[in-house]
Amino acid sequence: GESVGLHLPTLSVQEGDNSIINCAYSNSASDYFIWYKQESGKGPQFIIDIRSNMDKRQGQRVTVLLNKTVKHLSLQIAATQPGDSAVYFCAENSDQFYFGTGTSLTVIP
Amino acid sequence: GAVVSQHPSRVICKSGTSVKIECRSLDFQATTMFWYRQFPKQSLMLMATSNEGSKATYEQGVEKDKFLINHASLTLSTLTVTSAHPEDSSFYICSASGRRGYNSPLHFGNGTRLTVT
Question: Does the distance separating the beta carbons of B49 and A93 come in below 8 Å?
Answer without folding.
Answer: no
